[in-house]
Design a protein that fits this description.
Blueprint (H helix, E strand, L loop, with lengths): L3 H9 L2 H7 L8 E6 L16 H14 L1 E2 L2 H10 L6 E8 L3 H13 L3 E5 L10 H11 L3 E3 L9 E3 L2 H15 L4 H14 L12 H9 L3 E4 L12 H19 L5 E3 L11 H9 L4 E3 L25 H12 L18
Parallel strand pairs: 1-3, 2-3, 3-4, 4-7, 8-9
Antiparallel strand pairs: 5-6
Helix pairs in contact: 1-3, 1-12, 3-5, 6-7, 6-8, 10-11
Length: about 350
């Protein structure tokens, strides 16, 4: 893994392009990075999540070559046309305990603020269905596994590639089910395959309070992380409001920012859900459509992206490419009249 000075030199090659793409002011653009977990060491079943060493050079690189801002500060400056050059925000989704155990010390050392979007229903020992699936697959023995009961053909597990492929296939089958149904299906999978699961990887309520006390922004991410477009309006409103209210009770501060579960416009949430979020008192919401926000971007459909790259130069190149991407979330959507909360 490159050391920080090498990281700085690599990104310096892209500095003129980054300055051109994100000059600040009225022409400023806001890059919003999306993370979920930061592992102490690399997890072969979660190659998209950085380990501590990779996350450290990424944050040091952002601090040296960009202008990291808290999202709560960046959004009004984006709308007012007063962003600094190369503005960037760091966000985390779901509420994993390693966000505070591993990521927080790195963020503080680098001087990078972050926003943590918490799905409150999984606090204090919970586990999201996808993590259940990954831990099942991690613990299966080498050799054949019969998954006809789960609607899949027999699979052979020889190495990490086989396990990643199987976990991906199972997660894809369950993702768009109602939250209780997919959790039950994941638990049944563990029982049928005889796998004993480890403790849940999510934060405790006290850890959320610690994050807030450390000056990090706490945002809402519903309660049970449903795909909002797959449930009715009343259920969606209840999920958004319940997550908001639980975080208010925990931190003593009503969250101003929201993240749509899964987050793709049209597929996972619609303009109706953007209107619900606005009516429930949030000031902005983030999605997972790629691109960088500009002054005309709807603040309730802010794009985000995940930098998967393993080297500083590729990481910087992806940031530059994302700055040049026109976001799917266009101006003016989701701002119509809606009933109050």
């Amino acid at each position: 893994m490159p050391r920080p000075p090498e990281s700085m030199r690599a990104l310096a090659l892209l500095q003129p392009l980054l300055a051109l793409l994100s000059p600040g002011g009225a022409r400023g653009r806001l890059s919003i990075l999306l993370y979920h977990r930061v592992h102490r060491s690399a997890d072969p079943l979660a190659p998209g999540d950085p380990d501590a060493a990779a996350f450290r050079w990424q944050m040091e690189l952002l601090a040296a070559r960009f202008t990291p801002l808290a999202l709560a500060e960046a959004v009004p400056r984006l709308l007012a046309g007063t962003l600094p050059p190369r503005a960037v925000c760091v966000t985390f989704d779901d509420g994993y305990a390693d966000n505070i155990d591993v990521a927080l010390p790195i963020l503080r050392a680098a001087g990078v603020p972050a926003t943590f979007f918490i799905a409150t229903g999984y606090l204090d020992g919970g586990r999201m269905f996808n993590d259940t699936v990954i831990e099942i697959v991690r613990r299966l023995p080498h050799g054949p596994v019969d998954l006809a009961f789960a609607g899949l053909d027999q699979r052979w597990l020889h190495g990490d590639d086989d396990r990643r492929a199987l976990a991906g296939a199972l997660i894809a089958r369950l993702k768009y089910q109602e939250p209780a149904a997919r959790a039950a299906a994941a638990d049944e999978l563990a029982e049928r395959l005889g796998v004993e699961l480890p403790p849940g990887p999510m934060m405790t309520s006290a850890q959320v309070q610690t994050l807030a006390a450390a000056g990090m922004e706490i945002g809402a991410h519903t309660d049970s992380h449903p795909i909002l477009a797959r449930i009715d309006r009343a259920a969606a409103r209840a999920e958004i409001r319940r997550g908001r209210d639980r975080l208010t009770a925990l931190t003593g501060r009503r969250p101003a920012l929201f993240a749509y579960p899964n987050g793709r416009a049209g597929r996972d949430y619609t303009t109706e859900h953007a209107a619900l979020v606005r009516a429930l008192g949030f000031t902005a919401a983030v999605a997972t459509d790629p691109g960088a926000a500009a002054s005309g971007t709807d603040p309730f459909r802010l794009p985000r992206f995940t930098p998967w790259d393993r080297t500083p130069l590729r990481f910087g190149a992806r940031l530059a490419s994302n700055l040049a991407t026109r976001p799917a979330a266009t101006a003016g959507q989701g701002r119509g009249h809606v009933p109050g909360p």
